[in-house]
Specification:
heterodimer, A: 340 residues, alpha/beta, TIM Barrel, Helicase, Ruva Protein, domain 3, 2 domains, eight-stranded parallel β-barrel, 8 strands, B: 295 residues, Rossmann fold, Dihydrodipicolinate Reductase, domain 2, six-stranded parallel sheet, six-stranded mixed sheet, EC 1.2.1.10 (chain B), Acetaldehyde dehydrogenase (chain B), acetaldehyde dehydrogenase (acetylating) activity (chain B), NAD(P)-bd_dom_sf (chain B), Semialdehyde_DH_NAD-bd (chain B)
Chain lengths: 340, 295
């Protein structure tokens, strides 16, 4: 079964999904989830803070458990699945990459803003040296025109990335735009192409199917949708849809459904839905992990979180700039008082 | 008043911006700009302004009996600095290291220059360090800082190939200096590049957690305001974007650094604060040298 896969799924519930639980995963939870994913024959499982290795911070949220302990736990119960880690240069460093590799992580996904691939060569080269498979993860993809994306993907390829991803961090892309992007990459780079969607506009599944149709073979999914904003492409649904379309994922549908229902659902403080905040992310083109922070800032300053998100979109804020949220919220509150 | 002679090693953007700032100094006299590329725009500019433009590198400068300097700014690269540091030490010339090499101690111009006036080589940390460590120190001198975290956001255009290829050097060096110079028990640094057009002005956010039971809001507010003035004395475009936010034992400080626009564009406050800090440190060195001579 493992040898017969048309697409290779990376499960991100233990990384992107970390946002949905405010980075509160415990070793026990990670053991349970990883074991079930491994049993379901999911090829890759990503485990890291939501903002990648070393993301635990006041800026993004402190992890309850050191992510290295979580990686170690995941590795200990994954005899078929490979454990992946995410690293954003500027946040994580070679030091954490090495630690993760030593614990048994087999794939390094190096994430940069879509126009800034050239901060990644050091990390990609080092991951290779450590014997890891490498991915160039181009975030906030909608913020660059297609020709710029192609240029940046070629850079990732030249650094040694085995796969280049189109990452729709804001859940903003429409199916036609995903098609155009994947098609352009397919024509211009020789390595695997991947797609990571967010469901803020309820388009994660449609976008993923378009990406597959255009030749993407590395696909991110999140069981029960667990991820920033409205979450990602729902893995168990993707597996079912692919099965009906004759696309082999190699993943056991029933086991994924059981994991979603029996293990993941009880973990969630609130079900992962398209709330007005996550819809606004997709509408305004804002980094999905801003949702929770904006909600908190909105309550603190007595303003509408949608106004904060729209303003952040206007200011072309990129991933990682969570410190802008409080500042914008304070400004909106001030101008509201001035207008009274 | 007699002036202390200085030279700039490196004829790129940083070296050229330094040249313009030094031309205004009352106490420093620029003698030479040293590069390795005879075609360099920086060397051509230096010669136009009446300074020696040396295109044979540090060895050429040291070999020329007509050229002298008491202090050299090294605006080359970490790798080149290792050699430069060695030969300049042998020549008895003080060095202000603007590269990430960190052969000498970390110096933040507003915080700890007095401790290092006698050193022959000091390191200027990073742009994010120069911008944020004064604030970590400002809090720490009132209430002990358990943890300090800084986020520096700079425009993509102001991040050169050297910074990009070695981005870990920024996070690691800045984190260490937050502890060593800023006084935090634990430090963390994050850097973000933003490609928006027109380019954004450098902004930094400083989060500090002070020891339980030591929060002195009034004292910290005053200390932050005082420190802001100190940094503004050599970086006029340094300012708080909004009032600091106090929340339990956490203080969040928002900073903006606009450059002086000497040679580098105004948005690149990250580069400007390095050259401004370099000049500030050199002036302190010079005052100390002149004082010693007078005695």
């Amino acid at each position: 079964m493992t040898n017969e896969r048309d697409i290779l799924i990376t499960e991100v519930a233990l990384r992107d999904g970390s946002h949905a639980v405010s980075h509160q995963y415990t070793v026990d939870q990670v053991l349970k989830v990883t074991k079930a994913l491994n049993d379901a024959n999911v090829p890759y499982i990503e485990v890291s803070h939501g903002d990648g290795l070393a993301g635990s911070s006041l800026q993004y949220g402190l992890s309850r458990t050191n992510e290295m302990e979580l990686i170690e736990a995941a590795v200990s119960v994954a005899d078929k699945s490979k454990i992946a880690v995410l690293l954003l240069p500027g946040i994580g460093t070679l030091h954490e990459l090495k630690e993760a590799a030593n614990l048994g992580a087999k794939m390094a996904r190096i994430a940069t803003h879509v126009t800034e691939a050239d901060v990644a060569p050091q990390h990609i080269a080092y991951a290779k040296e450590l014997g890891m498979e490498t991915v160039g993860f181009l975030m906030m993809n909608h913020m660059a025109p297609v020709d710029k994306l192609v240029e940046q993907a070629k850079l990732m390829e030249s650094y040694g990335a085995d796969t280049v991803y189109v990452v729709d961090s804001a859940g903003y892309l429409l199916p036609g735009q995903v098609r155009e992007r994947i098609r352009a990459l397919k024509q211009s780079v020789g390595v695997n192409i991947g797609f990571h969607g967010h469901n803020n506009l309820s388009l994660a599944m449609a976008n993923t199917l378009v990406a597959i149709e255009e030749g993407a073979t590395r696909i991110d999914g999140s069981v029960r949708c667990l991820g920033a904003g409205a979450g990602n492409t729902q893995t168990e649904v993707l597996v079912a849809v692919c099965e009906r379309m004759g696309i082999k994922t190699g993943v056991d549908l029933y086991k994924m459904m059981d994991l979603a229902e029996d293990i993941i659902a009880p973990l969630l403080p609130v079900p992962q839905e398209i709330t007005k905040d996550s819809l606004t992310l997709g509408y305004a083109g804002v980094y999905s992990s801003f949702a929770l922070h904006s909600k908190r800032a909105a309550e603190k300053f007595g303003v509408d979180s949608r106004d904060i998100l729209i303003e952040l979109g206007k200011r072309k804020v990129v991933g990682g700039q969570e410190d802008m949220i409080v500042e914008v919220a304070a400004e909106i509150a001030k101008s509201k008082i001035a207008n009274l | 008043m007699s002036k202390v002679k200085v030279a700039i090693l490196g004829s790129g953007n940083i070296g050229t911006d330094l040249m313009i700032k030094l031309s205004r100094s009352q106490i420093l006299e620029l003698t030479a700009v040293i590069g390795i590329d005879p075609q360099s725009d920086g060397l051509r500019r230096a010669r136009e302004l009446g300074y020696a433009g040396v295109d044979t590198g540090i060895d050429g400068f040291l070999a020329d009996p007509e050229l002298e300097a008491d202090i050299v700014f090294d605006a080359t690269s970490a790798k080149a600095h290792l050699y430069n540091a060695k030969v300049l030490k042998e020549a008895g010339i003080k060095v202000i290291d603007m590269t990430p090499a960190a052969v000498g101690p970390y110096v933040c111009a507003a915080v700890n220059i007095d401790e290092h006036l006698e050193k022959d080589n000091i390191n200027l940390i990073t742009c994010g360090g120069q911008a944020t460590i004064p604030m970590v120190h400002a809090v720490n001198r009132v209430s002990p800082v358990e943890y300090a975290e800084i986020v520096a956001t700079i425009s993509s255009k102001s991040a050169g190939p050297g910074t990009r290829a070695n981005i870990d050097e920024f996070t690691e060096t800045t984190s260490r200096a937050i502890e060593v110079v800023g006084g935090a028990k634990k430090g963390k640094a994050i850097i973000i590049l933003n490609p928006a057009e027109p380019p954004i002005i450098m902004r930094d956010t400083v989060y500090t957690l002070v020891e339980e039971g030591t929060m002195d809001e009034e004292g910290i507010r005053k200390s932050i305001a005082d420190m802001t003035e100190v940094v503004q004395s050599y970086v006029p475009g340094y300012q708080l974007r909004t009032e600091p936010i106090f929340d339990g034992n956490k203080i969040t400080i928002f900073i903006q650094v606009e450059g002086a626009g000497d040679y580098l564009p105004k948005y690149s406050g990250n580069l400007d604060i390095m050259t401004a800090a370099g000049v500030k440190v050199a002036e302190e060195f010079a005052k100390n040298l002149l004082k010693t001579e007078a005695v």
